[in-house]
Amino acid sequence: MSIIDLVRPNVRELQGYSSARMEADGGLVRLNANENPWAPPDERGLELNRYPDPQPAALVSAMADLYDVAADQVLATRGSDEAIDLLVRAFCEPRSGAIMECPPCFSMYRVAAGIQDAQVIQVSLDESWEPNVEALVDAHRPGANLLFLCSPNNPTGNALGLEVVRSLCDRMSGKCLVVVDEAYQEFSAKPSATTLLREFSNLAVLRTLSKAFGLAGIRCGALVASPLVVATLRKIMAPYPLPTPTTSAALSVLSGKSLEQTRQRVQTLVSARSGFAEQLRQCPAIEAVWAFEANFVLVRTASPGALVRACASVGILIRDVSSYPGLDGCVRITIGSPQENATLIDFLSASANLEKAS
Ligand SMILES: *Cc1c(COP(=O)(O)O)cnc(C)c1O
Fold it and tell me: Is the pLDDT of residue 301 over 80?
């Protein structure tokens, strides 16, 4: 059995749109795409009057190097959000199809399933926030062609060991594509699931430049998977998904010097994590703190809504996640700059501020 057998039959048979840019590249006199011959003034040499390459070779190759895979295993996307959407549209039949997810987790998986009118099979994480492999295998049914895992998990922050991912890929072989969303992987000490792609064709890994690379504004990420999955998703993707300024900014952050600065900044955030958690533990309103392997921490408090509102009243934004299953009283706090972290700690340390929050 091929992983392509899990793709919706109409998508499997679909002939994707063939754009002018895909049919002919280069050229000296380009009269094939109804573009304007003149770029607007002040476009900084980006040739913005031209349609962009749908999958710029330089970007795909830089991402392949970054994630240590082959170029044909990489699909450059408009952030991982686009990859989630493409996966659901390619693998899940409306109504009869389903995704599987392990709450509490990122909410985009079920939003994408909802848009597709696919079902959502939920198998909660266990009390250590680890996936329950046996329960997932039992809950699987034909048509549930995607299993979303998130590592490090948003909003709990803990990362999966490779043995869990390996065991799920193995047990779900022929049944579903296991998707590991690694939006926060750079902040974790655990190895990436990309290292398992050699063993499993039913594995896809989502990466992004939005978090560790500081480029949430350009919308750029990657799906790393078997070349068959990459080729299938390309067929249903928008013809020109990557704006030229996005590719230009991504390439510049993936070049040598900038890459080193990114590593240092990630290191700075990771080093701040345990100290920040310790300071939060000292704050009167905070009952518990979990600081695992991402650029955020999770805290529990008696009145999460009041805490979030009290912070917002002085311009500090934190995220109420208390409505997530199993996360009663919880609030997610991003690790910011040393100054931003200190501003929050100062505010939370003052008991007068906290009375407002209780
Ligand atoms: C932030 C986040 C994303 C979205 O990433 P983009 O690349 O910006 O679309 C995906 N998954 C998780 C778990 C996230 O927290």
Answer: yes
Residue whose CB lies within 8 A of the most ligand 1 atoms, among 85, 106, 293, for a mutation test: 106
pLDDT of 181 > 80? The answer is yes
- Within the chain, how many helices (H) and strands (E) appear? 13, 11
Name the amino acid, one letter, at 143: G
Say if ligand 1 is within 6 A of residue 156 CB.
Answer: no
Q: In testing the pocket of ligand 1, which one of 109, 154, 158, 246 has its CB within 8 Å of the most ligand atoms?
A: 154
E-assigned strand segments in 85-202:
98-101, 119-122, 144-150, 177-181
Measured from the CB, is residue 150 less than 6 Å from ligand 1? yes
Write the Ramachandran bin of 79: left for phi over 0, alpha for psi from -120 to 50, otherwise beta: left
Answer whether 79 contacts ligand 1 (Cβ < 6 A). yes
Distance 157 CA to ligand 1 centre (A): 13
Q: How many CB atoms within 10 Å of residue 51?
A: 18
Rounded Cα–Cα distance for residues 205 and 63 (Å): 13
Alpha carbon distance 323, 100 (integer Å): 20
